[in-house]
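Handout, section B. The chain below has 538 residues.
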Amino acid sequence: MSEEQKKLLEQQLWNIANELRGRMDADEFRDYILGFIFFKYLSEKQYIYANELLETETVKDYLNLVDTDDLEAIRDESLIKLGYFLKPNELFRSIAKRGNKKVESLPDGQAGNFILEDLETILNSIEQTTMGTDSEDDFNKLFEDLDLSSTKLGRTVEARNTLIAKVLSHLDKIDFEIANVDSDVLGDAYEYLIGQFASGAGKKAGEFYTPQQVSKILAKIVTTGKKRLKTVYDPTCGSGSLLLRVAKEVAVSDFYGQELNRTTYNLARMNMILHDVHYSKFDIKQEDTLVEPQHFEQRFEAIVANPPFSAKWKGKDNPLNDNDERFSQYGKLAPTSKADFAFVQHMIHQLAENGTMACVLPHGVLFRGSAEATIREYIIDKQNYLDAVIGLPANIFFGTSIPTCILVLSKCRVNNDDILFIDASNDFEKDGNKNKLTEEHIAKIISTYQTYIKGETPLLRGAGGVLEDKYSYVATIDEIKANDYNLNIPRYVDTFEEEEAINLDEVANALKALDKDIAATDNTIADFCKQLNIATPF
């Protein structure tokens, strides 16, 4: 699909979403449109797979199949291959056509057939077909946010039915090229819509979305030097976009994630399936990661995360944290008002010995004192896990304008005697009321990091020094100790721009010339006043 076709598809989808926009908040109509797109995807996958199984049969089009034995056989195979099952009359195209079939007795613009109850039954049926199978957890209550009885869709049942039928009809006309194994049209379109909804969701956007430019940086960092990954993990996975971004860099065997928000957790599972990740290859859980970690005993080769910035957590208010092996060794717990380092400690615990983690955090983690200073010192001095600190521009995240940073940590560091600092805070371009990183900005960050990791810098290990003037610096551990483990980037990357010298003689002459001009103007005004026989104003 060309870039022009892609943009046209995105516009089509946004226009369809706007059928619901205005009736409800962005995060609400998001659930409907993404849910319907997901239903269409499941239907198309079922139709394609069923037709593959029918290639040697008399009836080759699944929509025309009525034989109960054949349907049962397809059901059994589908539950293994796809993880769910849809009958021919339950497919998206079937119900979309039923809902929009013209009935002469009805006014123009009103849906021909009542489909809301059928649609609700079908969505429930998808979940029910998985019960007792390996995919049950991955489909459990996946459509629970699609409340078809909500008055926000319409004041009357007829109005709701007409609106839903209209949305399904529009979606039915779009070809997502699901049969094309080399195409990810639907996955890309889904990501586009998630981004659009995030831009309109205000503070709620941070719960489920990381800008793609930032996702790309994290993904490229944790895959440096790798051709494939056994596991990748995100402890605050939101919509799952970060995990999927890693898979665009290298082949990933298994995806793991945890998300607190129920709606966003559903979104993450849908996103995985939409990107053709088999249900057996991902394990997304819903719980509070800091309180009830669901993958506690597992270790991961790559970890990426964008935890909620400075979120509250129980910290010392929960006595269990004092003996929790994720936190106990550091001497102090992260403050209850700021869980940033608690998430870092959790990720360190989950990181494999050959693993790399990259996470986005507010700048405050670099220099705040008290307990956070103690934890910083332990990570650098005792564990020696910190590889790099990357400063990002302000105002690049939805819902907040604060500047952020990326911490890169590894348990198998190549560079034991120093830490890389990158100041990319001034590298951005304006995008409406937000800032964004361009491909050039991303490439520069990654190139600098990879040069450092591969030992291709002209600097001696343990000697430190400027890597690129006003952009990157390699600080020795001794330098960082001398700064009391304060990681504030300006302490290491000198971005000072010397101001141009001022020629005082030129300034004095300019002021004299200005005085002459003022005097001449005063004389002119005085002359006008004399001619008008009025008093001068000075």
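Note. Confidence is low (pLDDT under 50) at residues 202-207. Compare this with the example in section A.
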